[in-house]
Amino acid sequence: MIPANFDYITVKSLDEALSLLAKHKDDAKILAGGHSLLPAMKLRLMQPKVLIDIGKIKELSYIKEEGGQIHIGAMTTHFQIETSALLQKSCPLLPETATQLGDMQVRNKGTIGGSVAHADPAADWPAAVIAVGAEIVVIGPKGERAIKADDFFVDMLTTSLQPGDLVKEVRFAAPKGKTGQAYMKVRHPASGFAVVGIAVTLTVDGGKCSASGIGVTGVSSKPYRAKSVEAALKGSALDAKSLAAAASHASDGISDAISELYATGEYRKHLAEIYTRRALETAAGRAK
Amino acid sequence: MAEKVVGKGIKRTEDPRLIQGLAHYVDDIKLPDTLHAVFVRSIYAHARIKKVDVAAAQKTPGVVAVYTGKDISQKIGPVPCGAAIPDMKQPDHRVMATDKVYWVGHPIAVVFAENKYVARDAADKIEVDYEELPVVLDEEKAADPKSPVIHEKIGSNIAYKLTAGEGDIEAALKAADKIVRQKIYHKRLAPIAMEGRGVLARYYPGEQELTLWTSTQIPHLARTQISLMLGFPENKLRLIAPEVGGGFGSKLNVYAEEAIMAYASMQLGRPVKWIEGRRENMQGTIHGRGQVGYIEIGCKKDGTITGFRYNVFADMGSYFQLLTPAIPTLTGLMLSGCYKIPAIQMNVTACFTNKMSTDAYRGAGRPEATYVIERAMDLVAAELGMDVVEVRRKNFPEPFGAENPFKVATGLFYDSGNYQGALDKALKMADYTNLRVEQKKARAAGRLIGVGVSTYVEICAMGPSPALPAGGWESATVRIEPTCKVTILTGASPHGQGQETSFSQIAADELGVTVNDCTVIHGDTAVVQYGIGTFGSRATAVGGTAVYLALQKLKAKATGMAAHMLGVDAKTVTFDDGKFTSGGKSVTIQEVALNAHLAKNLPADMEPGLSATTFFEPKNFTFPFGTHICVVEIDPETGEIQIQRYIAVDDCGKVINPLLVHGQIHGGIVQSLGQALFEEVVYDEQGQLISGSLMDYAVPKAAQVPWMELDRTETPSPVNPMGVKGVGEAGSIGATPAIVAAVVDALAHLGVRHLDMPIKPEHVWNILKKNKAGAA
Amino acid sequence: MKIEGTEKINATRERVFDLLTDPAILQKCIPGCEQMEKIGDNQYSAKLSAGVGPVKGVFTATVSMQDLRRPDHYKLVVEGKGQPGFVKGSGELNFVDDGGLTQVQYSGDVNVGGLLASVGQRMIQGAANMMSGKFFANLENEAKSTDS
């Protein structure tokens, strides 16, 4: 647990971070909460030559609602999300996800921006940000751009971030109308990461499901949107039978389900179905 | 009148420093000019070393020395093994690999540098050329004559074969109405002490004094062994076990790294330090368990056990560590459990494998025995359609004690026991009869509830000297200082058990002082008289008894002195609450303490000072016991297992501090839970340790631990005057079978009779799925 | 660890076989392969900068092709070692005609040792999938770009 040599630079502004990133390119890594990066560095699995600590950039830590959009700064910690009155009221899925994420130490230091940028295949945030239809706002050498969460996660530990980019915020439309949400997860007994994690948001109109977002993590080498589940829910009465039928599609199209010591891909897919149904039932109950 | 404190659950005096981070572990001890060591370890399980190129490492600025196995292996004696079994084959275990590597983690070279970063950078530059050899991983297949051989000089992978037990097993099995058989696994476990190992060595060439700070459970034994390895005088070697962050048996050992650091500090003329990382800890610190066995148990129709045979293959790993070969023999000793079994036989085949050595891990061989006999009793109950409680009760001995010790067919005499008492209490706490009713109802409603019962007995207070390789006694010195502060020097080496508190409680009551007046010193061979150490639930029963006996000697002397000061006959003096009284006159122990040191008013034949030393040799082991009951609910859709209730009634004899006892029981149950449901050291088919970090190896965390309903019965041990038995391993021995039994019971209606540990939800789901498919 | 799968490449079997036995093409297809030098008959030494996302290691590897039977079959053996450990893989490749396209059926064993094995257990299979995915995507591109 002894990292390789690196330079450590603390920056006070986004501009400073971006110019350093531009200068050091692939040699540099951004240090946010550090709860994925530092363990990997201690194992020497990652050996960045320069660490750019953005922890002092105050402008990246916020949770706010503007014009129907909720904005969460990249450096907002899991704990801040867990305890945000704004989110608990307008999008409780995110605080519920945060409560199940890591342990207290991780939640106090780890950040949503760091987590999505790291793109661990079993991390919790990716499921939630996909479910709420978030965009990841990225800032890079050519300025700002927004990437749909669905397109942001490319593969294991791989995002569509380009060299020189950093995550600025996560934003999404505040849920409107009668909504119900839930995050359910099977924790790996050792790591606490999601064996499966299911994030659900449902909108109900006239007793029927008018829209839904289902994000799944842990099952495949990247988080995904369970589109067939969403399609099956559209217009459904959200009764037990229709929820179970919809949930049966939770791992449709997944051919590379993760197998490791604790759970095979087959079991993961099964858990995905069961927990999707349970999360849907919980969310539907909350929507009433 | 001061309140007596023995039996009171007072808080640990150790805790303030631990909680505040003020304690000093090896890595907290900083000496100027210290060099830091990093090891290069094998990444192959079995390979010939063709070349070790250290040139680039040596040239790295800041590197002071690099040693390879070839450089030092013959300069330091072999890593010791203290156990001897007849006809045992013992490989020559050198401190580092020379021609061959035998497991992933086998040290090949070590770098000493100005700081650990430079040392690690340089270690990364060392190139090792390997020629891979076929690996031997399965302890059962290893015994096959066609298996590749690990130690060419030994010629086979069999370390020893041993048959133990008494009675005519063949006749006993023949007399049975039924014989139940089951193959059973005890997977390897990693002890995972919170603090890994660590060593700091310093040599003063002028004084020729070598000081070794090392995280160990056995400071004196380690000193003796390391002095032999180095050919260095034992009385010039000072070994200090500073704060030790847990051991669980993994530090009841002498490791190569300890001797290498000592050697290097003498060669390099500077202090050297090595602190183990967690990956190294998983790879290079001993593992526990590692057995696969075959149960054969014979019973009459009424549940009476006629005979019990256990044929077992024990995984030694590639080398012996201190007690490696002895662990399966402890399994053999305890196979009778708390039952009358006329004939018992264990056949052990102990094999070498290309893995880290196994050795003592909390319970050391006894959890295996308890698991085996408890699973066997459940299998018998299932076979006969009896309740698991009834089949146990049927085979219990009547309550017994000093006059009628319980003799079992493994050769042991159990000291005292009342198995019915603990069972009855636990059943009442659990409301067992009602539990079974509830279980039936739940099952009818499609819920899967299981109840597991384990009635265990363990062997503790290791133990009479003939039974232990290095002596089974323990030592204590108690000194009353001039200001009447009490100093207790114990040869035991507590590392989390809380004996700084409990030994102070003993002294406080005996001397009429407060717990805060007492201090317990341990772990420093230059300060403490020779002792054996802390393992095998022995520190209180043997070490505490030594303290108690030293206190009696001390009190006798103080009484004589008090009588002299009072001018009365010693026979007339009573001592109570810190006061010596005779005929209305009294002196306090404080006055006596001062007088003993001023020495101006002593009886003519009395030496000054107030100090007494005892070496206590117990006549027998002690045998704590108890009943654990676990209630689980299984998610019928996913196979996930939830522990709903956990009830434990333990009997560890007289209790000095119930809070410490509860702490030990809690911790043991948690480790059992880990073994039953989560933990497993996994080597892949190439011998790579793929459960190599705590991301994959699942040690239970607080949130995974159920509420525990604890109580106890108290059956004093006749083996020592305080009647204490020991409790350090009870939880890890009694709980595992109860948890496994509960899961099996939840699935019993599907024909499940046994499941191997760790029971993973996916496995349960597969059973449920198969059953559903079968039913459809 | 076993890996197996079938990929379809839009080219004839002969072409696919030739591409997959051409060291220059292999270098382009093997993710992170920085150089490839011939060291013997159908044997090459390679330098790989392989990894997943930011987790990267530099490996020196030998790549050898055995049991070549154009256009049906060959066996590819890769042994690499580097600071994060070692990777050994051997795979049988079978080329099956599929109406003018070629099915590449592969099955093999990948063994990983050292650091990668001890801490990477939960990601190794995903990483192997990712690498083989990239490999075949690159191959598809090569088949296209060098199409005459």
Can you give a write-up of this model?
The complex is a heterotrimer of chains A (288), B (776) and C (148). Chain A is α+β, with helices and mostly antiparallel strands. In chain A, 34% of the residues lie in helices and 28% in strands. In chain A, helix 10 packs antiparallel against helix 11 and helix 11 runs antiparallel to helix 12. With 776 residues, chain B is of the alpha+beta class. Chain B contains 19 helices and 28 strands. A seven-stranded mixed sheet of chain B has the order 3-5-1-12-9-10-11, with helices on both faces. A five-stranded mixed sheet of chain B has the order 7-15-14-13-8. In chain B, helix 9 crosses helix 10. Chain B starts with 14 loop residues before the first helix and ends with a helix. The mean pLDDT of chain B is 97. Chain C has one domain: Alpha-D-Glucose-1,6-Bisphosphate, Chain A, domain 4. In chain C, strands 1-7-6-5-4-3-2 form a seven-stranded antiparallel sheet. Chain C is globular and about 45 Å long. The interface between A and B is medium-sized, with 24 and 32 residues.
Spell out the key features of this protein.
heterotrimer; B: Aldehyde Oxidoreductase, domain 4; Aldehyde Oxidoreductase, domain 4; 3 domains; 7-stranded mixed β-sheet; 19 helices; 28 strands; 23% strand; globular; C: 148 residues; Alpha-D-Glucose-1,6-Bisphosphate, Chain A, domain 4; 53% strand
CATH topology of chain C: Alpha-D-Glucose-1,6-Bisphosphate, Chain A, domain 4
Helix content estimate of chain A:
25-40%
Quickly give the structural class of chain C.
alpha+beta
User: Rg of chain C to the nearest angstrom?
Assistant: 15 Å
CATH superfamily of chain C: START domain
Q: Strand share of the residues of chain A?
A: 25-35%
Mean residue pLDDT of chain C: 89
Q: Return Rg of chain A in Å.
A: 19 Å
Specify the biggest β-sheet of chain C: 7 strands, antiparallel
Secondary-structure blueprint:
The complex is a heterotrimer of chains A (288), B (776) and C (148).
Chain A: E1 7-10, H1 14-24, E2 28-31, H2 37-42, E3 50-53, E4 63-66, E5 69-73, H3 78-82, H4 85-90, H5 93-99, H6 104-109, H7 112-118, H8 125-131, E6 135-140, E7 143-148, H9 149-152, E8 153-155, E9 158-159, E10 166-173, E11 178-187, E12 194-205, E13 208-217, E14 224-225, H10 227-233, H11 240-247, H12 265-287
Parallel strand pairs in A: 1-3, 2-3
Antiparallel strand pairs in A: 4-5, 5-10, 6-7, 6-10, 8-9, 11-12, 12-13, 13-14
Helix pairs in contact in A: 10-11, 11-12
Chain B: H1 15-19, E1 35-41, E2 47-53, H2 55-59, E3 63-68, H3 69-72, E4 100-101, E5 107-113, H4 116-125, E6 127-132, E7 158-164, H5 169-174, E8 178-186, E9 198-204, E10 209-214, H6 219-230, E11 237-240, H7 256-268, E12 272-275, H8 278-284, E13 291-299, E14 305-317, H9 327-333, E15 343-352, H10 366-384, H11 388-395, E16 406-407, E17 413-414, H12 419-430, H13 432-444, E18 448-457, E19 474-480, E20 486-490, H14 499-511, E21 518-521, H15 539-566, E22 574-576, E23 579-582, E24 585-588, H16 589-598, E25 611-616, E26 625-634, E27 641-651, H17 658-678, E28 709-712, H18 730-746, H19 761-775
Parallel strand pairs in B: 1-12, 10-11, 14-15, 20-21, 27-28
Antiparallel strand pairs in B: 1-5, 2-4, 2-6, 3-5, 7-15, 8-13, 9-10, 9-12, 13-14, 16-17, 18-26, 19-20, 19-25, 22-23, 23-24, 26-27
Chain C: E1 2-9, H1 13-20, H2 23-29, E2 33-40, E3 43-52, E4 55-69, E5 73-82, E6 85-98, E7 101-113, H3 115-119, H4 121-145
Antiparallel strand pairs in C: 1-7, 2-3, 3-4, 4-5, 5-6, 6-7
Helix pairs in contact in C: 2-4
